[in-house]
Amino acid sequence: MELPRPDPDILSRRAQIVAALKTLVGDGVVSDRAGLAAFDGDALSAYRQAPLVCVLPRTREHVAAVLRFARDNEVPIVPRGAGTSLSGGALPRADGILISLARMNRILDIDIANRAVTVEPGVTNLAITRAVEAQGFYYAPDPSSQIACTIGGNIAENSGGLHCLKYGLTTNNLLSVTHITIDGETLRLGEGFGYDLMGIVTGSEGLLGIVVEATLRILPKPPVTRTLMAAFASVPAAGQCVADIIAGGIVPAAMEFMDRSCIEAVEAYCAPGYPAGAEGVLIIDADGLGSEVDAAIARIAAIARAQGAEVREATDEAARARLWAGRKAAFPAMGRLAPDMLCMDGTIPRRMLPQVLARMGAMAREYGLGFCNVFHAGDGNLHPLIIFDAMKPGELERAEAFGADILRLCVAVGGVLTGEHGVGVEKRDLMPTMFSEADLAQQQRLKCAFDAEGLLNPGKVFPTLSACIEQGHLHVGGGRMPWPNLPRY
Amino acid sequence: MIAENEAQVVEAVRQARERRSTLEIVGGGTRRSAGRPMHCEAVLDVSGLRGIVTYEPEELVLTVKPATTLAEIEAVLGARNQRLGFEPQDWSSMLGSHGISTIGGAVSSDADGPAAIRFGRGRDHLLGIRAVNGFAEAFKAGGKVVKNVTGFDIPKLVCGAWGTLCVLTELTFRVFPRAQRSVVLARRGLTPPEGSARLRQAWSSPIDATGLVYANGTAFVRLEGDGPALAEKRAFLDGFEETDAIEDGFAPGALDIWRLSCRATEAVRIADSIAAPRWYGDWAGTRLWFAAGSDKAQALAAQGAQCLRGNAPPRAGDPRAELERRVKAAFDPLGLFNPGRMA
Lengths: 489, 343
Fold this sequence. Notes:
The complex is a heterodimer. By secondary structure, chain A is of the alpha+beta class. Chain A has helices at residues 8-12, 14-25, 33-37, 60-73, 125-132, 151-157, 164-167, 197-201, 235-247, 260-270, 290-306, 317-328, 330-335, 353-367, 395-412, 431-434, 437-450; strands at 29-30, 53-55, 77-80, 97-100, 107-111, 116-119, 137-138, 174-180, 186-189, 210-217, 219-220, 224-232, 254-259, 280-288, 310-313, 340-343, 346-347, 370-376, 381-388, 467-468, 475-476.
């Protein structure tokens, strides 16, 4: 995918822009080449682009001032948390300000009585649980990058994790946010009545404004968690097991599937001890009170055995950690098989798993690329990992084409392009496979209501830009484009 | 005319656009009392948009048309031991209205029941929609799977929007398994501060209560699970006795009806300051309901309460109002749908 061509007019104003930002944010401006190289992308590592300038505000007043500056001077602005996005959500622009919220990293309030924690956006996901676990609470969304990723980024991407089926995504665990608009106006969202603007800001991938404070719901830590591994001789048997568990009224805390390629890769990497020759392994957590968990684990084991599975239950914490070690090592285990890896993220109706895996296997052979599948089986969220060597001519393009075919397949079977990683730049051009022109026009009108000039994270999520017209923000297809020099595909 | 399919809704909106004629969108018609008085030139009756579109119990996903009745949904899900986690509420007896309560109305009015404290509100369950906007264009948003972050989360926005953004034509929900057993426990004779403390204590324990209500001196806790789980959960509650149902005892009669959101620890102070003739606290005290005369309207509005029946003063001084106006215009620039209902 081609990166946008920078606006030469903005590039020519770089010195003034840097000087002006220094008056607004003081010590928080990075403008030297070496410093900017540290901010040249996120976890979608195939794409690198240093920003025009990077600012690191310390206060919400800084954020508001920078946004107003961007608006007044018509400079694009790209927000960034920890830069762990897998979809390129924080990919900078050569002609854009990168605003990193990393220095706004204070926990502002811990209110156990109201089960609420208030934080600045640069606080890491895991730090919230760390702050309340001594009192017996935790913050439920747990993206795999939780040690590094920030709450601001989690809100922008509506991040999920292993426990979404039972505990929801970020959007289901937010109480209120303080949001700053492109006009520099500070709004408290999520309190009182009126339109659910917090709901629309969450998961908007930095296109609607910047969250500078968030109040999150914390949950009492379940007293008991038990883990079970079930190994299957066929993918349909594993799929049927998942369907039977769900239809049986059990909501596991986590339910993870690995296919044969993944099992082999992790066995070679860290030997978690999954049965040799299995076509699929499920790792299942049940949590809650002891009696609930005991009943759930017993029923899950029976359902799995009815599908011919070899079932093993962890009897202590060390055994639990071992069962999970393989799943948690899936990325590094695949990563060492080749220099580069793409992690895809589609959701499918669970019942389609056997067909989808079979079709993906055939695609992999056509493309001549290695891949494996990990799958949040409870909620149907697939993570195919494609391995390739970007140094070999054409291989990145082939991997991307394979990935795009996988996502088209997800949509074709009734699923969606992204379950938790976001659209970003990665899946931007696939949006029309899921949404009609009218669907996209409605989303873009909403974008215009927040950001009429299209300065917030431009080039992400939407394949084409449309001009916003002030009166009523009417959509004009094929009309004047705000960035004539942005390539469109 | 009663619209029976999306194409008819598109046509009705197209005609309204041409004539610049405002539309009151009515399904079951049980929630028309809310908001400022409306003077719509026409009624868009969508009660013909009813029925289950698809129901896949193993996927935990249900797609329905908006005028499907709450009773029908409950029956269909119940047959497969499932339910809507947010427990959508029929307000017709509370509001003294006639008609049959529908899912579109429940979602549009944020009519979330006691179980929302455990499973989340309607906005947490609505996965996808089809709708017709004020441009007379049919569109969809969200998806039909339980985990999806593709594009803006427009389904959230239509929850609690009182039909002011678009005309819903199809709704997709995630559903939850129904518990084997459910039991309501009550502890009577508690002052509001005592009741609030009891409920907050239960809320912070791992019993996953699906109802935490304080009303008229009684704290109610609803628990779910099989026999052993219920026994283990009950051990967390001291001095509670089994009763038949959560009795909110809320009989507004001719009084105005308001609801507000607050922090659980603020509930008693706010209820005291309003001093309404009747009130009760749901969701561990984070959602308060008031029945009051018009003399309380200013005080309730000042607390950010929403008026569901009665004469609310116009909302003033909300810094979000301008952005909300632009959001409304992004869907309905001519202001055709339910004008004034959100004011």
